[in-house]
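Q: Convert this sequence to structure tokens.
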Amino acid sequence: MQIFPLSEGVFTIGHDKIMVPFDPAKDQLNERPVGSFLVEIQPFLIQTARHLILLDSGLGFRGKSGEWQIFENIREAGIRPEQVTHVIQSHLHKDHSGGLCFENELGIKSPAFPNARYFISALEFDEGIRKGMPSYHPEDFDILRHAPQTEWLGEKGHIDADIRYETLGGHCPFHIAIWIQEGHETIFFGGDIAPQLKQLKTKYVAKYDYDGQRAMELRQQFAQQGKEENWTFLFYHDNKTPYSKLG
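A:
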């Protein structure tokens, strides 16, 4: 399998949950609102022998050319966006789902990856529509309710023979984790359950999690199991380490 990190840059996020671009070369964290912390926004493309899988879809910002940034990043990897076969969402918080749908110059929205099947937790979708801002931005994904390529995920199961998922909660009530396996290689994407390498090495309860105790326990569980089974972890919010093994 081949991993393509699709970094959209570094941002600060505060209590208002607004993502503000941060340039480490000129910006100072202590000049941002109290409580702000640094995160990277980093969807992933995974190329397997049979699939081209997008894991979470980023912010939905425009890049330097004016094109959807996630499209720019995919092209820079030498791939065309229309080649993506699967879009799988760990959850639908606005920093993970902004690139799901594309709005053209006439304001008409459509799924951003027209040839892909979209895999979304049905419970998470309903939670996002119900709860709304500031954590969710329903207009980024509400058209998927009736899109023919949307496939609704249950509590756990297999998307394909080499892709499985499980609803775990923790960061939000219906957050899922995703495993992709090919041969003896396993890729684990925990979204915001395991967003950074350092969080797998530290025991603490994060205030921004829906159930901080549950999220902490999951991180410890996956760190131990992943180390034993030689998983490759993908880190959506790590501005230093996109992916890593723990062995």
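Residues 12 and 31 are 11 Å apart (CA to CA).
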